[in-house]
Amino acid sequence: MDSFLQRFGHRVVGVLRGFDRLRFRGSKRQMCHVAGMASWLGAMRILLKDYKFWARDATVTLDRAIEAPAEHAGLYRYLNNSNDSKEETALQLAKEQGRTQGLIAVLGCVEPCQVLQVRGNRQTKMLELRVELAKCKHYYHYYLDPQYGLRYTRLQSWAPFTMHIGLNGRDWLARRLDEAKIRYRKNDNSFPWIADFAAAQRLADEQLTTAWPELLAGWARQNNPLETMFKCPVPYYWSVETAEYATDYAFASVAALARLYPRLVQQAVTTLQSTDLLRFMGYRVRQDGNCTFRQLPTISSRA
User: Fold this and answer.
1) Radius of gyration of the chain (CA)
2) Which helix (H) or strand (E) segment is 253 a member of?
3) Which of 69, 219, 226, 210 is nearest to 145 (CA)?
4) Which three-class secondary structure state does DSSP give residue 80?
5) By C-alpha distance, which of 112, 119, 135 is closest to 34?
6) CB 18 within 8 A of CB 170
7) What is the spatial distance between Cα 64 and Cα 185, in angstroms, rounded to a whole number?
8) Largest separation between any pair of C-alpha atoms in the chain
9) Are 11 and 252 in contact (CB under 8 A)?
10) How far apart are CA 242 and CA 117, in angstroms?
11) Which candidate, 10, 3, 1, places its Cα nearest to that of 257?
């Protein structure tokens, strides 16, 4: 990046580095593998022959605790297609109800996941725990947080009740800029212009010192009613599943960027892998290599 600025810095009026989109995975580690789950079930005094009934009852309890209040508040919506954009649905629901802060939507959707099941072993004639791929209902809670911006939790409704939490570092930064009364212009998820780039960078750097475990645990307690129901609670262990750390270059003018843009595209074509390039240009690339068009590419100040 420094070499880029050495060559083209005269065309750039500001640089901003920081978190873009972040996605954390919350795992109940003792409940995620066979030995740990067997130990936990023993502590809970749940026999393997009763596991199916316990797991079903836990899921039903979770469903009712989440759906009933959300439906009463007009916030719940079930999505028949897991490919529907949850973010767009949540924002549309917020717009329809005039919600600009706090919980704006609770979405239910059946999606793939890993679960714990009890199966019979034909060779040993015994019941045993197994980790299996399955599908179950997941609950998305979307918030317009006054401090962190748009964020969500995604909770698996069947054991081991894995949770994901996502937020947008740039949306978070925009809230901090508003608090500091620093003027800016935001285009999608980039900042083409900020009145004080140096001050904005200092605010972005504060995100690096966030006490993530405490913050994420608090959000998990908000959206997982089972957290307070188990006699032997298992805390979430948080790991970063996806993290984007982006650099924005604000060019002096559209013409200044347009003169350089063909060279940037050529650099991307010759150095990036094809899947990376297709995703950047707005294509959804599947694991089998096929891709579908998602959105039109636009010239932006994001490099």
Assistant:
1) 23
2) none
3) 219
4) coil
5) 119
6) yes
7) 43
8) 75
9) yes
10) 28
11) 10
DSSP label at residue 32: S
Residue-range domain boundaries for the chain = 19-168+210-243
Question: Comparing C-alpha atoms, which of 52, 65, 51, 149 is closest to residue 108?
Answer: 65
- Note if the pTM is more than 0.85: no
Chain-centre distance for alpha carbon 81: 18
Whole-angstrom distance, CA of residue 61 vs CA of residue 75: 19
Contact 110, 138 (CB under 8 A): yes
Per-residue tokens: 101: 């802060």
Task: Please report, as a single letter, which amino acid is at residue 59.
Answer: T
Residue with tokens 């297609």: 81
Q: Which residues pair with 239 in a beta bridge?
A: 25
DSSP-derived pairing of the beta strands 76-78 and 102-121 = parallel
Q: Buried (b) or exposed (e) across 179-195, using 16+ Cβ within 10 A?
A: eeebebeeeebbbbebe
Cα–Cα distance for residue pair 138/142, rounded to 1 Å: 13
Residue-by-residue pLDDT tens, the chain, 303 positions: 677 777 777 778 889 999 999 999 999 999 989 999 999 999 999 999 999 999 999 999 999 999 999 999 999 999 999 888 999 999 999 999 999 999 999 999 999 999 999 999 999 999 999 999 999 999 999 999 999 999 999 999 999 999 999 999 999 999 999 999 999 999 888 888 999 999 999 999 999 999 999 999 999 999 999 887 778 889 999 999 988 888 888 888 888 888 888 887 787 777 777 777 676 666 777 766 666 655 433 333 343
| DSSP label of 261 | H
Cα dist from 231 to 22, 28, 41, 267, 300, whole Å: 32, 15, 11, 57, 53
